[in-house]
Design a protein that fits this description.
The protein is mostly helical. The protein folds into three domains: 3-65; 68-97, no CATH class; 131-188, DnaJ domain (Helix Hairpins, Orthogonal Bundle), CATH 1.10.287.110. It contains seven helices and two strands; from the N terminus they run ααααββααα. Strands 1-2 form a two-stranded antiparallel sheet.
């Protein structure tokens, strides 16, 4: 016996109970009508499931929502691994010296020699990006659904900002910048 057969049988049973309760409510007592309402609702949802429409609706909703958090995490990990691989390849190509003064490395970060000979970041790296982030990218950066309200956006931003702040233990300056940009896009 298939699942669909079982669900159709249950739907038929609930439809029968609903009909009996409606008749009982008309003939005997109105409270039976109140009991018929939940039985009717269950009958409808069982029928909706048995016809496959519930599955189709769930699939369409999932497609509209975009990738799941797990899929986005895999994509981020893959991108980070590719950047790291390119950085290592660039280091091997120049004998492990890294970028020279005023040059950018494979990660896209600039460096230059400071007054004491140590490398410092290029101040141009701190300039805001001119490309701009779309609203969709902002929601993806925060890991939120497009239907998230302002309070959820604010709460999620604060939680991630604490974790990603460059002064923190797990701080990541580039991710923190993207997080701030995403928050600005969603709060404007």
């Amino acid at each position: 016996m298939t699942n669909r057969t079982i669900v159709v049988g249950l739907a038929g049973t609930f439809v029968g109970m609903t009909a009996l309760l409606v008749i009982g409510g008309i003939v005997l007592h109105p409270i039976a009508l109140a009991l018929a309402v939940p039985f009717g609702a269950v009958s409808y949802f069982l029928w909706y499931h048995a016809t496959g429409r519930l599955h189709d609706q769930a699939r369409r909703s999932a497609e509209q929502a975009g990738p799941t958090e797990r899929q986005r995490a895999r994509q981020r990990a893959r991108a980070e691994a590719n950047r790291e691989r390119a950085y290592r390849a660039a280091g091997a190509a120049d004998g492990g010296r890294g970028p020279g003064p005023g040059q950018r490395d494979a990660r896209g970060t600039g460096s230059r020699a400071g007054p004491d000979g140590s490398e410092t970041r290029d101040p141009r790296d701190r300039a805001p990006s001119t490309g701009g982030m779309t609203e969709r990218q902002a929601y993806e950066t925060l890991g939120l659904d497009r239907t998230a309200d302002g309070e959820t956006v604010r709460r999620t931003y604060r939680e991630r900002a604490k974790r990603l702040h460059p002064d923190g233990a797990d701080g990541d300056e580039e991710e923190f910048k993207r997080l701030n940009e995403a928050y600005e896009v969603l709060t404007d």
